[in-house]
Design brief:
The structure is a single chain. By secondary structure, the protein is α/β, with parallel strands linked by helices. 53% of the residues lie in helices and 16% in strands. A 5-stranded parallel sheet has the order 2-1-3-4-5, with helices on both faces. Strands 7-6-8-11-12 form a 5-stranded parallel sheet, with helices on both faces. The longest helix is centred in the N-terminal third of the chain and has 35 residues.
Length: 552
């Protein structure tokens, strides 16, 4: 299904929800008008109670009606809500004003309402250049670099890391390649002395002609504010000065792809209004997000623990519960401090909005909520939350999981393997003679070697595999649904590829090898699996290094 068909299908679903909401109005509005008529015979105390109930229901209607396309109904409900609030505040319910209030509510109940659903927009124009190739395992990277030595070094290193990299020393060659196939990312040097335009000018013009801009990384000797500003305006996702740290460049390249093609963001919606929460869910799912809906706020702790959301959408006014109260409960748990809380409410009073945010929230969206506003706000918050979560859970040098986090993954995958009956393999890896690298070339070069291995592992292993930096130069990998024999074959290929990487320091080139030990699930506990993999690694070291061993 193409984007246009998917959009038409979404519009049909939204119209169906609007029809269901109109049917709901026919059932809910007449009792609301009848409740208002009771005000004529009620005592002052009863009137205050009735007005409070009417105000709350009108408040809810004012927020939801516009979202379903009933803009006029929402505005009229808002005006009635404000009138009810005024009477509650002043405690002066004049008879004539009350009659008008009841009459308007009666009209609201009797008048037929029709949703105003936006027409599907025209389909976007196709790309003016070639389309992306079908997704393959190796991502295609084009490098525009006039310095042959630098360009070829980047190409060879990226190819070793598992990319399909191509180097072009001039724009004409790059244009010819792009006409045949668009890359998955573009690396450009700012300064191109033999060209009529800079690399940034070229990249800006190229992305302008594409429906979806290519991830762009920039190389330069001009590490000044003006050049960085130009790169930011060109949409660059990375900026690297020369001499170039290629391992660091590859690390950023991988982050770009993770942002583009990572797992869908997880969003939890807590709202007692089933129709409204269903509509929010449909809109967010259409934007490729995973959504869980909770209509009973009392179950929020269980939902948080099981779904592990990256964003929480929380209605601020619900029967028996206030949004800020629930948000404060969430903030009691340190594990959920990184989850952004977005309030949904028809509340228009800025002071009340600010008060809710000060207590525990992060953002506030006033109902009615447009689809674009909902998607944009949730996406921006989820993206930032995931980046922050990854930064806190991952090792700063390699971008891999930290010691405690990768050990937890071993436990999770071992438990899953026991339930499913499928194998799981645990791998311990260690860089051979790493102390010699540090002593000979310095700790900076040692860090480059560690990053290079981390990047190679990330490229060669699957997305479902987990990787962590277990110690200084030691790594731990968890491979679900993978036997020891399969793991041995994969890790031996990685061992050979790592040995082929050429590192340079102070004008001299050198290579480094690795050793690895593998243990596969056999009903043992997670801790025992790690010990078995560690013993296999020791055997590989004792056997001469630069080899992969598995437990007997």
């Amino acid at each position: 299904m193409d984007k246009h068909q998917a959009h038409l299908q979404l519009q049909a679903h939204l119209r169906q929800l609007s029809t269901q909401f109109a049917q709901r109005l026919q059932a809910e509005l007449p009792p609301l008008a009848a409740q208002a008529r009771q005000l004529l015979q009620a005592s002052d105390g009863e009137s205050q109670l009735l007005l409070g109930q009417l105000r709350d229901q009108l408040h809810k209607l004012a927020g939801s009606a516009g979202t379903f396309g009933f803009a006029d109904l929402g505005q009229r409900a808002r005006a009635l809500e404000q009138q009810a609030q005024h009477w509650l505040d002043s405690l002066q319910q004049r008879q004539q004003g009350l009659q008008d209030f009841i009459q308007q509510l009666q009209q609201l109940a009797e008048q037929p309402h029709q949703a105003q659903v936006e027409a599907a927009p025209a389909q976007k124009s196709r790309r003016k250049a070639a389309k992306h190739s079908p997704e393959v395992e190796a991502r295609v990277i084009y490098i525009l670099e006039d310095d042959l030595g630098i360009g070829e070094n980047i190409r060879l290193t990226l190819n070793t890391f598992g990319y399909q990299a191509a180097h072009f020393s001039n724009i004409a060659e790059l244009d010819a390649a792009i006409a045949l196939q668009l890359p998955d990312a573009l690396i450009v040097d700012v300064n191109l002395p033999n060209e009529s335009q800079t690399g940034l000018d070229y990249a800006t013009a190229l992305n302008h002609n594409l429906e979806s801009a290519l991830p762009l990384l920039v190389l330069t000797t001009q590490n000044d504010f003006a050049t960085q500003l130009q790169a930011a305006r060109a949409g660059a996702m990375g900026f690297f000065g020369k001499p170039l740290d290629i391992a660091k460049l590859e690390n950023r390249l991988e982050r770009c792809f993770t942002q583009q093609h990572g797992e869908p963001y997880r969003v939890l919606i807590v709202d007692d209004d089933r129709d409204l929460s269903s509509r929010y869910s449909l809109v967010l799912r259409s934007a490729n997000m995973r959504v869980d809906v909770l209509n009973d706020p009392a179950q929020i702790l269980d939902a948080m623990a099981s779904f592990n959301p990256e964003v929480l959408l929380l209605d601020i006014n619900m029967p028996n519960y206030a949004g800020p109260e629930l948000a404060q409960i969430i903030r009691f748990n340190d594990d959920w401090l990184r989850v952004p809380i977005i309030y949904l409410s028809a509340e228009t009073d800025i002071a009340r909005q600010m008060n809710a945010l000060i207590k525990a929230g992060d953002d506030f969206i006033a109902k009615p909520i447009s689809d674009n506003r909902l998607i944009t706000t949730v996406f921006a918050r989820a993206q930032r939350a995931r980046l922050l979560s990854q930064a806190l859970a991952r090792d700063s040098l390699t971008g891999l999981l930290k010691h405690a986090d990768i050990k937890e993954q071993v436990l999770l995958e071992q438990e899953r393997a026991l339930r499913s009956g499928k194998p799981v393999s645990v791998v311990m890896l260690d860089i051979d003679h790493f102390k010699r690298v540090n002593d000979t070339h310095g700790h900076g070069v040692g860090d480059t070697v560690i990053r290079a291995l981390a990047n190679l592992l990330r490229q060669r292993l699957r997305r479902i595999d987990s990787l962590g930096r277990y110690g200084g130069e030691e790594f731990l990998a968890v491979l679900p649904d993978c036997s020891a024999e399969q793991a041995l074959r994969i890790l031996d290929e990685i061992r050979q590829q790592f040995s082929a990487i050429r590192f340079s320091a102070a004008g001299c080139e050198f290579s480094v090898s690795l050793s690895a030990g593998i243990a596969s699930s056999n009903g043992s506990a997670a801790s025992e699996l790690m010990e078995q993999a560690d013993r296999a690694l020791y055997t590989a070291k004792q056997g001469g290094r630069n080899q992969v061993r598995q437990t007997e």
